[in-house]
Amino acid sequence: MALTEVYWDQHIPLPNLAPLQARSVVALLALLCFINSYDGEFVFDDSEAIINNKDLRPATPLNNIWMNDFWGSNLRSNSSHKSYRPFTVLTFRLNYLVAGGLHPVGFHVLNIVLHAVISALMMDVFAVLIGGLAHDEGGRTLNLAPKTSFLAAVLFAAHPVHTESVAGVVGRADLLCALFFQLSFLTYCRAFNKGGDQDGSFSVSWVLLSLALTAAAMLCKEQGITVLGVNAAFDVLLIRNVDVLQLGRRLLLRKTPLDPREMLRGGFLTRMALLALGGLAMLSARWRIMGTGPPAFTQVDNPASFQENILIRMVNYHYYYSLNAGLLLCPWWLCFDWSMGCVPLIRSPADWRLVFVLLLWSVLLGLVGGALWAPDPPRRRALGLGLVLLVVPFLPACNLFFRVGFVVAERVLYLPSAGYCLLLAAALGSCCRRWPERRGFLRAGVLMLLCTFVARCALRSHQWRSEQSLFTSALAVCPLNAKVHYNVGKNLADRGNASASVRYYREAVRLHPTYVHAMNNLGNILKEKDELLEAEELLAKAVSIQPDFAAAWMNLGIVQNSLRKFAAAERSYWNAIRFRRKYPDCYYNLGRLYADQNRHVDALNAWRNATVLKPEHSLAWNNMVILLDNTGNLAQAELIGREALKLLPNDHTIMFSLANVLGKLQKYQESEGFFLQALRINPDAAGCHGNLAVLYHRWGKLEAAQHHYELALRLDPRAPGTRDNYNMLRRKLDQRGRGGP
């Protein structure tokens, strides 16, 4: 292969850099784009995949990683999302061990470093796809398109659509998958390091190693298996150097008989058989591990896939493809979630959005035409393999083979964007060659594009630093998305601004009238604001829409209890328990209902059930002690209090309640010990100071009683009974001072 074959490369207005320098520039640019996300929080899906995932904890057996899905649920469960990514979860666990806990900095730093490594390594991938496998006399691989591969890698490093994969910790799956994808492809290329298969020589060992790296990519994210398609296309188009157009003509016109040996010589059939058998083995193993078939997604996740009319379904799928293409071309409108009305369905042939579908296929067909009919091999190779790298990694997200759980997801574009960057770099190179007098203008355009990309990456990665900024940024992009409004409202409520969250919850319900989670959260806030009738109406509607929504049943019971609708509240609590058998909070609230009705035995049984299901349920323990204390069962109250403190040795509320019981049993010294221990934990508890003062008062330690009465009144001047007890003590001390009894 001649060194000047990629003729447009020399016309690109970029400096000639040594390979190490070029890779360093690409890696540094990748770091620059996303470095400001290094100290961000865990946001959005990170909550389930990181914070709530027990598989990250050292106490969890390591084997669980191989049996559970990406979110920590059993893979064979019907509720599992079936995302089997044990290698990714293993890196999360290592992050946890190294940092000694859930500290997000380490998680984010590793993501940024991975993107920098992938971006630098992408230069080698692009060099092979554009220039082939050329070697010098010493056997070293030559980069026949150093400027084009460098430009494509720079565009990849700085593309803003990567922000979700880099700045969101769960994007680690896409990054690791891309890394092993690259390694698998480059390893497959190494099988031909002696000059291709022209003499029939290739290394089976390298092909097998490539298959092993494909399996590793698939264990990071399911998309990894698509590298087999890229490897096969690379073999056909570059190693076998098949002219697809000429081959098609020979097959269709039958002017020249096709000799099968021409295609199968040089070990081609062996390699294709290895790729096919390897892919089938991986898919079979994946299906067996998954256990119960594909995951079950809801209509709000992917509404087009639930349309019975196949024409409407396919039109909307193609519109989704055009949206993905739009994100690659103009990555300005980026959003963490595109479901729940963000993209309304196309139902009419008069819908103006069909223009984007036609435009997408016009461009794709134009690229395919160029790949088939371009007069020179380098252009055909660049267009053909660029299209392969753009389309093949996107196939798992296209809804054609199975239903996916999203409308548009920026993270799935991490690998396909490499094909787009390759096509764009090749196009810019061709433009520079065709119009050399405008190279200055093109150089300025490329520089402006890169500056725009870097600025957009910096802004977007800053938005990913916190849930507040991430969710708020989505309001301008997807104002019709009910989930966006829900998440903004939930974030406000979590930060203590419940009043402000009401507006967003109401908007979420307006946009999606069956959004039961928004109804539940809004009902809870209205309950706290004492707007009980509207809260009851919302929660009742939520359980009518989703009868197995246990949390909404429990909250409905709480509201009905507040409205003194005791029978209805009891039915709601039992419905919640019917749909969620292990529901300690519901048993706790059921106990409160029984206590309000003076059904003391039922209340104790309900609270006992809560502590059995959740031994650390402090409120249930404390309420049992208080109820037994109030009903005069002091000995049993003492036993329950001591049992609770064995499980919760630092719970000051239980210490306080047990101290009160011991004081009534005249076990003054033990009671004092628990009061003092509780005050060491919570020194500003006015009630604890006041009750300790009462204990000292009864015990005859009047000066100590006076001291704690005064502390209690200083902390809470309106504490009920404390002022009267203090005045009584003062009179007693005055009498003693005057020599009285």
List segments where confidence is low: pLDDT < 50 over at least 5 consecutive residues: none
- Spatial order of the strands in the main sheet? 1-2
Q: Structural class, from secondary structure content?
A: mainly alpha
Helix coverage percent: 55-70%
Overall pLDDT metric: 88
Strand content: under 5%
Rounded to an integer in angstroms, the radius of gyration calculated over CA atoms is 34 Å
Q: Specify the number of helices.
A: 34
Tell the overall outline: elongated
| Separation, N- and C-terminal Cα atoms | 116 Å
SS elements, strand count: 2
Characterize the biggest β-sheet. 2 strands, antiparallel
Name the features.
two-stranded antiparallel sheet; single chain; mainly alpha; 34 helices; 2 strands; 741 residues
Give the secondary structure arrangement, pairings included.
Elements: H1 19-34, H2 46-51, H3 64-67, H4 86-99, H5 104-131, E1 134-135, E2 141-142, H6 146-157, H7 163-167, H8 172-190, H9 204-220, H10 227-239, H11 244-253, H12 260-264, H13 268-290, H14 310-329, H15 354-373, H16 377-391, H17 416-434, H18 439-463, H19 467-477, H20 482-494, H21 498-511, H22 516-528, H23 532-545, H24 550-562, H25 566-579, H26 584-596, H27 600-613, H28 618-630, H29 634-647, H30 652-664, H31 668-681, H32 686-699, H33 702-715, H34 722-737
Antiparallel strand pairs: 1-2
Structure description:
- The chain is elongated and about 115 Å long.
- It has a domain at 16-294 and 319-456.
- It is mainly α and 741 residues long.
- Helix 32 (686-699) runs antiparallel to helix 33 (702-715).
- 66% of the residues lie in helices and 1% in strands.
- It starts with 18 loop residues before the first helix and ends with a helix.
- The mean pLDDT is 88.
- A two-stranded antiparallel ribbon has the order 1-2.
